[in-house]
Amino acid sequence: MKRYVLLILGLAMTAIYLFPLYWMYLTALKSSTEIFQYPPTFWPSDTQWNFLEVWKSRDMGRYIWNSLLIATGVTILATTLGTGCAYVLSRVRNVWIEIALFAILMMQVLPSSLMVTPIFVMFNQIGLLASPRIAVILAQTAKVLPLYIVLCRATFVQVPRELEEAALVDGSSRIGAFFHIMLPLARNGILVTSVLIFLQSFGEYVYARSLIAKNELQTATVGLQTFMGPNANDWNGIMTYAAIYVTPILIVFMLLQRRIVSGLTAGALK
Amino acid sequence: MLQIEIDHLNKHYGGFHALKDVNISIKQGSFVALVGPSGCGKSTLLRTLAGLEKTSSGDVRIAGRSVIGKPPRERDVAMVFQSYALYPHMDVEHNMNYSMRLKRRPKEEISERTRTAAETLGLGNLLDRLPKALSGGQRQRVAMGRAIVRNPKVFLFDEPLSNLDAALRVHMRSEIRKLHERLNATSVYVTHDQVEAMTMADHVVVMRAGVVEQQGSPLDLYDRPANRFVAGFIGSPAMNFLPATATENGALVLDNDSTQIGLNRHIAAGCKFWIGMRPEHLSLKPCVNDMAIDATVTGIESTGSMTFVVLEVASQPVVLAHSGRPETRRGDQVRLHISLDNLHLFDRETELAA
């Protein structure tokens, strides 16, 4: 009995959680009049298929390409810089490491909207705003790197130290042991964390909005704003755009879902 | 020829003195056991030999060459870890030949030597399995195989059998010993189990709190323990100790009892001692050159071939080992016969053998 109550409760919570997503797809498919109809309809009566039209009229290909470019850049940069760092933080134990970890956790607390002004001023001075997408990659990498390091460190901590020692005794160098033993064993955690920061960077808004001036270099999140006029709001168009933007992310997430869950709990049970 | 020389070795962890002036010489081809209670520094010493721990002072030489400051790969030692430390993402074959692949040996040599080692250990048909698909005993063999394919100067074992069940442990004990005899390589074996140390090693080093308490052949330690700790640690069931004080006439009187034990050796009057008696040197029947004390039987533990009779003598527990089955029951008043030729005396203050 208790099981069913919990199941129903769980389903209800999930429904509440997923309702906005459902509403997005629904609105994308409704006509403009149906959107404002009261009482609202929960299934479109006159289905609109204007995905292709929105894609073409808003030049979404370019926006999404920019978003992909930035997200890929951030992921490559963060994994390159963060993996070694996370490994060292997992292996060395002393006061300085504790302080470094604390500082890293502190950095995560600072929101982008707070950081963007000093970053803008600094990037402007050193001329980075001339290549705004690289500027966004750098700023966003700084933003996600702490999260990446903290999550990756947890993965490395789970790999028993003796494996590394066995590799050293077997004749490996420290770097060899890292690449042959630690990295393959932490692979799942690294992959999962990379996907998380990729998705986060794909949806980045504040830095792109502030650091990128030219429309043709803008990302998909900022591109969504082109629908906002002073008088008219094309809700159908906005939701269609959002659906196009979000659906690939959802698909990727669902495909990797099993890996992500196992990655986050890997090593919890031997 | 000496293969390993440990010379005035000290190791500090911050304020903790983990190894205190350790001196050990190990001959080429011998099997040395480092034994002691947990936290005595035996594993630290082994890890120091492997190069996994830095030393604070002193010297370690392997095959005549000082290895202080050298990383593990320049020492040519192989180690079997307590947890086996098999690489989970490599199959048995790759686990075993990782060291040779690192050295970029020719392919034929790698597969040849892996195959030979696998045959030796009975792993021939498991080469393509991952460690998670192996039983505990098989994993242990792979860990051994990983060490023997390399043909190293020294084998280091860190409690390799402690994760196996009792029957397998006894079996692997003799396997390791046989393997050692065939390869004739120098082996250092860490264990907390003194039976393992006694049955496997040529040379036993007993450690406590970072200090080497005594070293020598197993029977040497058993027959002539240098102090009370070694006497109590080596041998199962453990040696019995009764407190006693020397009298004017050179005899010993048990504390809490008036029994006198006459000894044909000179001891200073008033000195306090522990009298050490091995369980097998006690008897319920008279024997050659013995003396008898009143005792009460408080327990009987039978293993079938041997019976351990727990007695109370001068309000101290004493265990007697009897081969066969004695006709006593709990609560019986008996005469305990002590063989005077096999008594050990330890000074109660210094704990050293007197």
From TrEMBL, chain A:
One Pfam family in the UniProt entry: BPD_transp_1
Primary localization: membrane
Residues spanning the membrane: 5-25, 63-89, 101-122, 134-156, 177-199, 238-256
Assigned keywords, A-Z: Cell membrane, Membrane, Sugar transport, Transmembrane, Transmembrane helix, Transport
Boundaries of every ABC transmembrane type-1 domain copy: 64-256
Localisation: Cell membrane
Coiled-coil portions: none
One GO CC term, this protein: plasma membrane
PROSITE patterns, per the entry: ABC_TM1 (PS50928)
Single biological process term from Gene Ontology: transmembrane transport
Membrane topology reported for the UniProt record: Multi-pass membrane protein
InterPro entries given in the database record: BP-dep_ABC_trans_perm, MetI-like, MetI-like_sf
Family the UniProt entry places it in: Belongs to the binding-protein-dependent transport system permease family.
Protein name stated in the entry: Multiple sugar transport system permease protein
